[in-house]
Amino acid sequence: MSNISRRKFLKGAGVAALAVAAAGVLAGCSDQSTPDTGKKRPIKLKYMVTTQHESIVKDVPIEVPALADTVTFATIQANVPAELKDYEFNSTEDKKIIDGVVVIKMHKKAAAKPTVTIKYTTGTSDVISTDFKFYELEVDENATALTQEQLDSLPSENCAYRILKADEKFFGYSQGVIKDGVATVYVEAKN
User: Which of 73, 146, 162, 175 has the greatest count of CB atoms below 10 A from its CB?
Assistant: First the structure.
């Protein structure tokens, strides 16, 4: 038998008691940190999108450890129904299980605006100059031409060329027409 003092015994017993208490607290934290007792229980992940124009509710049944009281965001992400892949989460926090259900609110992803490459031309040749470097602009999804505001945003100060206005035609060609991701911008030499 080893020589162990009463003080060391009590200190060791206290540390063990704290470890057991901490394990009990963690048992209900999430589906991933919950000790696996071998028992599982079914719950429902309820994915919801609600707007003025649409209401979508998709239930996904999963099983979690019997003692779990929350579901991790990783589990929520992993079980998103295919129909909701174009939606994003209102919150990325772990969610509480309430009466066997976890409610997950989502909203439509903001569509990224398409970009167009600007091609500067005099009508007879492309303008490649230090004044006009390769340039891209965000445009509306169904835009067919650049607006005057977009044309005004193009670099033209201290430049040997003037960018034609949106309503100016270049020998019958419209200014800033967008085709296949390229906006053709007509310029003319300044006098």
Answer: 146
Residue 70 burial class via C-beta count within 10 angstroms: exposed 0-12, middle 13-18, buried 19 and up: buried
The residues, any chain, with a CB within 8 Å of residue 38's CB and separated by 6 or more, are: none
- As a whole number of angstroms, the distance between CA 80 and CA 113 comes to 25
Phi/psi at 105 (nearest 5 deg)? -95, 140
Sequential DSSP letters for 41-59: EEEEEEEEEE-SS-EEEEE
Contact between 121 and 185 (Cβ < 8 Å): yes
Domains for the chain: give ranges and CATH numbers: 40-108 (2.40.240), 115-189 (no CATH)
Residue 184 exposure: Cα atoms within 13 Å on the Cβ side: 14
Q: Does the pTM of the predicted model rise above 0.70?
A: no
Residue 120, Cα to own-chain centre: how many angstroms?
34
